[in-house]
Amino acid sequence: MPKKKLYLIDATAFCYRAFHAFGGLSTSFGQPTGAIYGFMRMLKKVIKEKKPDYLANCFDVSRDTFRQKKFKEYKIQRPPMPDDLSSQIPLIKEIIAAYGIALFEKEGFEADDIIATLAKKAKENDISVVIVSSDKDILQLVDGSTQVFNPYEDEGMLYGEQEVEERFGVRPERIADIFALMGDAV
Fold it and tell me: Nearest 10 degrees: CA dihedral of 136, 49, 106, 68?
């Protein structure tokens, strides 16, 4: 019998992406809706095409994380979330709750931290993990039971250990080293 699969969605990142992709959409009373529309398209695509056994959305809560306590300049160049996006996040969370889909967030931690923790716990319980993210940093979590699905790359790219090594020339556990050497504007 095949292992059950848990899909973990980097929800904050997809909200940003949808916000920029579908900017300008709003209700008749001015409530921006582009992020809601784009995020729900992605979520429905994952549900319909991947048919996950388990599904969770992981969100950042704030910019104040444990990393900033250790290094004050951490992501200091990143601008705050635009008001037109922040007004949509509670509505996106309401829709996720209405679908009965799990939502995880924790003050002081980024969505990536939550994803890594949930992936580790799933592996301990013999559950395969597919992380839905377009963030290259998350590829360091790929191993024999964890894959990364980028729905926007080549109409959907699934990264296992072999695909990471083919694309970057290193095993997944060395991804952080490669980005540290190359530098990353983000």
Answer: 10
